[in-house]
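Continuing from the previous page...

OK, I double-checked the sequence for Cysteine dioxygenase against my notes and this is the correct one:
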Amino acid sequence: MQKVIAEDSFRDLFQFLIRLSSDSSSLIDLANEIELNKPPFYINETQQKLISVTAEDLGIDKASCFYPKFITYIEVFENRNLSIGIFAMSKGSAFPIHDHPHMIGITYLIFGEISLINRDIISINSSGIVTTRVLKEEVAVGPQIFYLTANSGNLHEIHAHEDSLILDIFLPSYSEDERPCTYYKEIRPNLLIRYNPNLFFRNMQYLGKTFN
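Thanks. Re-ran it with the corrected sequence; updated structure tokens here:
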């Protein structure tokens, strides 16, 4: 009986995200809630559905998912409007500063401890140097949920202080043509340049409960 309930809640979460990702007015409302502290209707709805998700629901086996110095990626679902993925960040691994162009991001830290820095872009000069300001810098212990939008905290970096499991949701998805991911490094405080990091990534198949 517990498995049926869990899978029903997963379908409920998935259907909510599908509806949200395909409704531009709802996405605008969600962005306004995040950026302007509007009454949090969509934030509350999202948190209520996400907070019950466990590592076991996602089919996570810690012994196989966490590999020293690597980030393991598990794709759960992806279409043009929505992507759902799992990142198993081993202790000491990190995502360098990167962007999420024209996207809303929902990051659910299920367990673990990370440091998270979100930045806003202030300007980009003719040489491609990006001036930013730090919007938020914190050390977080799961479970916690974080948000970013196209206009607020869109650049972020994540460092894992211990093995940490993250469920990432993006509305819409990355796209090589329209919404590519760009990485940056800091050359002086709050000044960034583009670069191509050497990331230690590996992929695994999703073995968790069904969403659809």
